[in-house]
Amino acid sequence: MTGSATTTLPGSVRMVVDIRNKPETAQIVVEGADQENNTITIENTLTDESARKVSLNPGAKVAVTIRADAEGTRPIEPNVAVLKPVQ
Predict the structure, then answer these.
(1) N or C: which end of the chain has fewer CB within 10 A?
(2) What is the pLDDT of residue 80?
(3) Cβ neighbours around 11 below 10 Å, total
(4) What ranges in the chain are assigned the alpha helix state H?
């Protein structure tokens, strides 16, 4: 394995959910994603540049980075049809 491929999309925190006896979560809307599947939910614990634990506020602007190992990617060739399985 050599290297990885990444893309970063903008997003924002839709809401913060705090349910008793469970870790607090943040719902993040990812801009540029399919409208039906554009929300991810994460545990609302981040680490800042001073190594302190912090949490996201509703409405916060975020960047969502997708990273894949090189063996999980393929080159994109122009004008080549890609068949995708029907779900």
Answers:
(1) C
(2) 63
(3) 20
(4) none
